[in-house]
């Protein structure tokens, strides 16, 4: 009986040892699997980061220049146009030049545009009066007041001009942009009808249809200052996607009440990396 009992104890101990060894083996395999997975994830992340840095260190597309022209105008609703029923609007024209030869000098599929649109449009202005409008504007009307409709479907889509024949048939009242980035993106912002039914004093027999209107109508410049932001999306002819967020400080004052003198013309500094188009893929 004694030997039989010892054999049972030995068999039980061997089973325990085997179970423990299997458990240790499984834990070891799990441990190495986790290490391997972590290394693979880190490698992929590192590779993607290196590729992202490589793609965007010297961007293919970059905003080279932003020019903003701000003034005011009015519509005379009075009979005989005697300046006694003016609806006054403030407007800012925006010209954005894209540099597509920052990395590649000659024109290739890499630095020419296949598609372009603007979305995520936001206008920050606390003044309740007036209708805020942003949309494409005919570049030949830059610096002149022109009625605009607001953008549709939360974005502005551009028609890309690829050939000289298309250029000859171009209607600049439509949202056009050249594939080689040779023309600027032309936008117009209007704060429409900020003053309605304004009548010019009888002491004046004329009035300037520019920023001086705002002073005559005693419009506070701080009520007109705004921040305009949007994202420009580009797809090149290799079907790679790029984007750049643009934030415009539409300050009509600059501490000098410049717009009261007629207009404000300023260029926004685009030297920082914030104006590089980031490649998404």
Q: Count of DSSP helices?
A: 3
Shape: elongated
Q: Averaged pLDDT, please?
A: 85
- Rg on CA atoms, Å: 32 Å
Q: Major sheet: order of its strands? A: 4-8-2-1-11
Q: What's the main sheet like?
A: 5 strands, antiparallel
Percentage of residues in strands: 25-35%
Secondary structure: number of strands = 12
Structural class: alpha+beta
Please characterize this protein's 3D structure.
The chain is an alpha+beta fold and 281 residues long. It has three helices and twelve strands; from the N terminus they run H-E-E-E-E-E-E-H-E-E-H-E-E-E-E. It has helices at 2-57, 164-168, 212-216, and strands spanning 62-76, 86-99, 113-124, 131-136, 155-157, 159-161, 176-178, 185-198, 226-236, 241-250, 264-268, 278-279. It has a five-stranded antiparallel sheet. The longest helix has 56 residues, at 2-57. It is elongated.
Give a quick summary of the entry.
With 281 residues, this protein is of the alpha+beta class. The protein is 23% helix and 35% strand.
Write the layout of secondary structure elements.
Layout: H1 2-57, E1 62-76, E2 86-99, E3 113-124, E4 131-136, E5 155-157, E6 159-161, H2 164-168, E7 176-178, E8 185-198, H3 212-216, E9 226-236, E10 241-250, E11 264-268, E12 278-279
Parallel strand pairs: 6-7
Antiparallel strand pairs: 1-2, 1-11, 2-8, 3-5, 3-9, 4-8, 9-10, 10-12
Kindly list the characteristics that best describe this protein.
281 residues, alpha+beta, five-stranded antiparallel beta sheet, 3 helices
């Amino acid at each position: 009986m004694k030997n039989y009992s010892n054999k049972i104890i030995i068999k039980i101990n061997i089973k325990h040892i085997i179970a423990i060894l299997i458990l240790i083996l499984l834990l070891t395999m799990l441990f190495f699997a986790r290490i391997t997975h972590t290394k693979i994830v880190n490698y992929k992340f590192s590779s993607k980061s290196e590729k992202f840095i490589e793609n965007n260190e010297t961007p293919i597309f970059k905003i080279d220049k932003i020019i903003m022209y701000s003034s005011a105008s009015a519509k005379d609703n009075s009979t005989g146009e005697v300046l006694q029923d003016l609806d006054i609007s403030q407007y800012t024209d925006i010209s954005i030049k894209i540099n597509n030869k920052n990395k590649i000098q000659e024109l290739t599929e890499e630095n020419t545009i296949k598609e372009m649109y603007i979305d995520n449009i936001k206008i920050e202005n606390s003044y309740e009066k007036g209708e805020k409008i942003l949309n494409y504007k005919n570049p030949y009307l830059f610096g002149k007041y022109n009625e605009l409709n607001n953008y549709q479907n939360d974005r502005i889509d551009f028609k890309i001009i690829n050939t000289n024949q298309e250029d000859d048939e171009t209607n600049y009242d439509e949202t056009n942009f050249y594939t080689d980035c040779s023309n600027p993106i032309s936008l117009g912002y209007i704060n429409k009808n900020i003053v309605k039914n304004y009548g010019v004093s009888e002491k004046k027999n004329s009035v300037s249809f520019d920023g001086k209107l705002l002073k005559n109508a005693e419009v506070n410049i701080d009520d007109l200052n705004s921040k305009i932001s949007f994202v420009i999306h580009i797809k090149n002819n290799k079907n790679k996607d790029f984007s750049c967020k643009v934030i415009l400080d539409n300050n009509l004052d600059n501490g000098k009440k410049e717009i009261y003198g007629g207009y404000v013309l300023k260029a926004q500094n685009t030297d920082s990396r914030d104006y590089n188009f980031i490649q998404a893929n």
